[in-house]
Amino acid sequence: MPWLQLRLTTAEEQVDAVGDSMLELGALSVTLMDAKDVPILEPAPGETPLWKEVEMMFLFEASIDTQAFLKGWQNHSLYSKTKGSKFEQLEDKDWEREWMDRFEPMKFGEKLWICPSWKPVPDETAVNVMLDPGLAFGTGTHPTTALCLEWLDGAELEGKTVIDYGCGSGILAIAALKLGASKVYAVDIDPQAILATQENAKRNQVFDERLVVDYPKAIKGLSTEVVVANILAGPLVELSSEIAGHCKNDGIIALSGILESQAELTRHAYTEWFEMEPAIFQEEWTRLSGTKKK
């Protein structure tokens, strides 16, 4: 059957109260979107950040009397803290299928594909990583992940040990193993990332002795031939000495999660240890890479 959707905008601090009130008034679901196109990057563990101004969408059964509802909502104490209450009709669709159909296999570099489980693999002879879009950061759709995947595809990983610093979904660690790395350490401070990496590794049949999934303590004192870190510019700068210490002399490093405006500052933080390559940009995001000095 068709549905009705009510849209309105409110401030971040009013989201919970408005959402609770709408559910009490008969809303069946609540969806939150950014009203100002301001990005939220990877949150710290335990945080659920929102935008300063939030667009809220509430789903109602089509039988609701919209005029009576809006008249009652205008008398509600929270009405003055919202803007633009407007109903619109939604088609009757299979929304799960609609969402799934948006995701197609994606190619990175010459031979690496990231494939959702419900789509056919385009090339059985390629390096295929099966990964479904989910809550964990990193599914290949974001430029920072794409930049790192392209770099891994072009790197010589055969027989080498790799550190994926800030593993998120595990996509980079899994790709590194499938591209020939002999061992990968996937580390993160977020317990959800640890679980997501383990589950995705099992799905890709690489959750074995070649893969260590743990918190950063697991790589204390460890140096490897390849380090990739797709986190954020602030932590990359703050942890530059530690991250550099995990890369052997003549080893290679790739850094992403960096806005174009942050590229020079982040690059400068690593020049003490690395001969840095020219930055690579995609949309407003940056990938930095380099070779460890002897």
The arrangement of helices and strands along the chain is: EHEEHEHEEEHEHEHEEHHEHEEE
What's the name of the CATH homologous superfamily of the largest domain? Vaccinia Virus protein VP39
Q: What does the average pLDDT come to?
A: 87
> What count of structural domains?
2
Strand segment count: 15
Give the topology, please:
Blueprint: E1 3-11, H1 15-24, E2 29-34, E3 53-61, H2 66-74, E4 82-90, H3 95-101, E5 106-108, E6 112-115, E7 127-130, H4 143-154, E8 161-165, H5 171-178, E9 183-187, H6 191-203, E10 211-214, E11 224-230, H7 233-238, H8 240-245, E12 247-259, H9 263-270, E13 274-276, E14 280-282, E15 285-292
Parallel strand pairs: 6-7, 8-9, 8-11, 9-10, 11-12
Antiparallel strand pairs: 1-3, 1-4, 2-3, 5-6, 12-15, 13-15, 14-15
Helix pairs in contact: 4-5
